[in-house]
Amino acid sequence: SYERVLADPLIGHVVQNTAIWVFANVILTLLIGLAVGYFLSFNFVINRLLRASILIPWVLPGVVAVAAWQWMYHAELGVINDLLKRINLIDEGVAWLGEPGLVIYALVVVGVWRHLPFSALVISAAVQAIPSSLLEAATIDGANAWQRFRHVVLPALSYTMTIIGILTLIGSMNDLVTVWGSTRGGPANASEILSTYIYQTGFTSFRFGLSSALSVINFLLLLAASVSYLIVLRRTWRA
Length: 239
Prior knowledge:
The protein is mainly α. It contains twelve helices and no strands. It is globular, with a radius of gyration of 21 Å.
């Protein structure tokens, strides 16, 4: 079965798509989550509403979220194309989920949108937990806003962001709903990732040997990520 994995002509393409999908989700979730979470940590009046509304992607069922994004990405009726036409960035609708060169990146946007609430709220709580005395001392020493963020806030968030990164990686590798519900790995396998390929080979093509071998490989990758998560958590156990 493992020889079939290596001999499969699609496996290289699937691995490449999986790497783009997982690492783009992790990096963008961390960067955007850091920006949004830092903003939410301030006591602005609007942040009370934002903290509640940002949970919408988190609480929505995956199937509902996918259906909503399918409509927004629609070439003719989608709100995204309509907006881009209004600001004269495009002349005709783009089939975001139908273009092989665009589809995986369009799906990354959906994945990041779904993971962002957790990242932003955890980072917001972590920023608020930083002792105000550290920020006050940095201000007294003449540090401006960027220097306080760079030398005080970011080092304090390193542990939190490591945890978020590992959990986002695990969640992205397990995310069958977003890709399968949107494109079923198409068009022409352009958005095929490991989880959808396992499902397709096993339950659509009935190639159970190949599907089982791929499942074991996926399990080992998730096990490695989970062990990394537990090793990082040892800091909490010692506390």
